[in-house]
Amino acid sequence: MVYQGKSVSVRQLEAGIAELCFDAEGESVNKFDLRTVQELGEAISALEQLPGLQGVIATSGKGVFIVGADITEFGSVFNAGSDAVIAHLSKNNENNNRLEDLAVPVVVAINGFALGGGLEFCLACDYRVASSAAKVGLPETKLGLIPGWGGTVRLPRIAGVDTAAEWIASGQDQRAEAALKAGVVDAVVAPELLRDCALHTVRQCIDGALDFKSRRQQKTSPMALNDTESLMAFETAKSFIGTQAGKNYPAPVAAVKAMQAAAKAGREAALAEEAKAFAKLAQGPQAAALVGLFLSDQLIGKKAKGWEKRADKKIARAAVLGAGIMGGGIAYQSALKGTPIKMKDIAQAGIDLGLSEASKLLTKRVARGRMQPAAMAQVLTRIEPCLSYDGFKQVDMVVEAVVENPKVKHTVLAEVESHVSNDAIIASNTSTISISYLAEALKRPENFCGMHFFNPVHAMPLVEVIRGEKTSDTAVARTVAYANAMGKKAVVVKDCPGFLVNRVLFPYFAGFSMLLRDGADFQQVDRVMQAWGWPMGPAYLLDVVGIDTAAHCETVMAEGFPTRMGKHFKACTDIMYEAERYGQKNGQGFYRYETDKKGKPAKLVDEQAYSLLAPHCAERREFSDEDIIARMMVPMVTEMARCVEEGIVDSVAEADMALIYGLGFPPFRGGVFRWVDSVGIDAVLAMAEQHAALGELYAPTPGMLALSGKKYYA
């Protein structure tokens, strides 16, 4: 052994050829943490001093190559300022430069994921051979950053500006064949041939059949573009990418600007431009939010896996009660991910609708090339439509998704309990009704919990798993395990009206109703909140959710929290509901809807909505953007704070992720609590005080007041 560390080793393979291997001790994957960066430097020193060295292959001892930097280390580095960030980047940039400057050729064997810093290491090597199972990419823009270890320098010099701009701006993983076509890798072989291919390639370099030195010259020199070509390439990329990314996500355009600034520079000066751009973004709010979001996502994934390990059995077969759109979506998701499911309804029309929904979603996957027709057929065979309870004794899990009516649910839940085994778990997909109340209909309430999916099921990642007063740990564990198997993000919450997501959504809607009552134009509110980052404004969102559904939920919330959510005026949702304007489902709500050429509902202004609102609202007037944002967001913040302080959800991170995955809360803001941290709790308290006359929804919680001058994410 030439060098042996805990993450990196070097050994002699045969005369003149050494192997540099990444294999982090005690870890399932390789990543560039501080230890690995230090050991890589030491390993390169060992290679530089190795007598008779003629070539190097770089490999991984894991099932993947290197998944990137250790993002848990970002916080302390970023908080130390720009100089600290640049110093942090320089350590591994020095490693990559030394690797690139070795007197002998270096060939990397990419056996799995090579992402971020992992791909940047590969770009510093002379030749890249990949397993057909490998995926490569530079996902840094998803964290509000750009590549910082040479990605914006080497990738455009290897694959061209267009490919580099597309790959870096999108942050998407690329399959091995796509990387080969783009010229990012030099060969793609079957996994079992990868090592031999790497050795063959390095021997060709040694023998002079491959000219590795000219490749290095290309990577370390200015780009081979004249002024006109450079201007056209970069300006076109900035314009297109800027339009796609939007103003709230500056990293993709910053990456193109860094490439442009370094286009006429050699390697060291180009890397300096990259580091400067990276450091600037690292100090910005988007990076703080998106890095935090990544870490919070890891947290909820870890907690969900922890629950899954506590499950005493796997959900081998499931059932959903109530077909229709929601039931069909649940059946589709279960079957798609491999769990067979019965789909029961009381009427054939419901069954037909559920099967149609599943078939439509599968057909779209086939049309987009994401699934073969044979695989679609296999998924459909996992969905068993039925009008009776035959075979329910063999079912491990039943998800009730019938109409949102307590009496109907009581009847259905009691009925299904008599047809399943004593061991089966029953879960309700209710969006607001108390799980403890629904459990009163059951003989085995310990086997019952909430499993709240969000519509559309296939697109919305979140599942709220709701623990009632008598729900057992076993029921929670199996339900979370089933959510994991369905590819969902499970967050466990305690029972209360609206649970977590709807409990904090309806104060947001209440803020909207009060704005309209006081004379705001719902179109202006929609524009402001969409510009703030929401995927759609509150009026449009109510139309999409269904105003009849929203009116029902508002009633439940008002009964549960009368002093905060009780209505003391004619709310806009009640006005629309009484006029039978239910939103997209019947073509009229706050807006009017017509089907466009693609078969989707197109939103149109409808003056009749204004006529209906006028008798119940103050004369229409302009509000400042700041006032609209404060009046919309403060109720959501205070209710989220109450949920954490009451223990409805275990942590601020889980609360934030629930809103991001369940509502589409703007990811670049990182969640409600990260937004509070970014503007400052004292600024939010000032907003609340300014609007205190609007009622208890604007009253800060004791926890918020105690946090003055501090942060939720310490």
TrEMBL record:
Pfam families: 3HCDH, 3HCDH_N, ECH_1. Keywords: Fatty acid metabolism, Isomerase, Lipid degradation, Lipid metabolism, Lyase, Multifunctional enzyme, NAD, Oxidoreductase. Its EC number is 4.2.1.17. One of its GO terms (biological process) is fatty acid beta-oxidation. Residues 498-593, 628-696 form the 3-hydroxyacyl-CoA dehydrogenase C-terminal domain. Transmembrane segments: none annotated. InterPro entries: 3-OHacyl-CoA_DH_CS, 3-OHacyl-CoA_DH_NAD-bd, 3HC_DH_C, 6-PGluconate_DH-like_C_sf, ClpP/crotonase-like_dom_sf, Enoyl-CoA_hydra/iso, FA_oxidation_alpha_subunit, FadB. Pathway: Lipid metabolism; fatty acid beta-oxidation. Residues 318-496 form the 3-hydroxyacyl-CoA dehydrogenase NAD binding domain. One of its GO terms (cellular component) is fatty acid beta-oxidation multienzyme complex. It catalyses: a (3S)-3-hydroxyacyl-CoA + NAD(+) = a 3-oxoacyl-CoA + NADH + H(+). GO terms for molecular function: 3-hydroxybutyryl-CoA epimerase activity; delta(3)-delta(2)-enoyl-CoA isomerase activity; enoyl-CoA hydratase activity; long-chain (3S)-3-hydroxyacyl-CoA dehydrogenase (NAD+) activity; NAD+ binding. It comes from the Bacteria. NCBIfam families: FadB, PRK11730.1. In the N-terminal section; belongs to the enoyl-CoA hydratase/isomerase family. In the central section; belongs to the 3-hydroxyacyl-CoA dehydrogenase family. This is enoyl-CoA hydratase. It comes from Simiduia aestuariiviva.
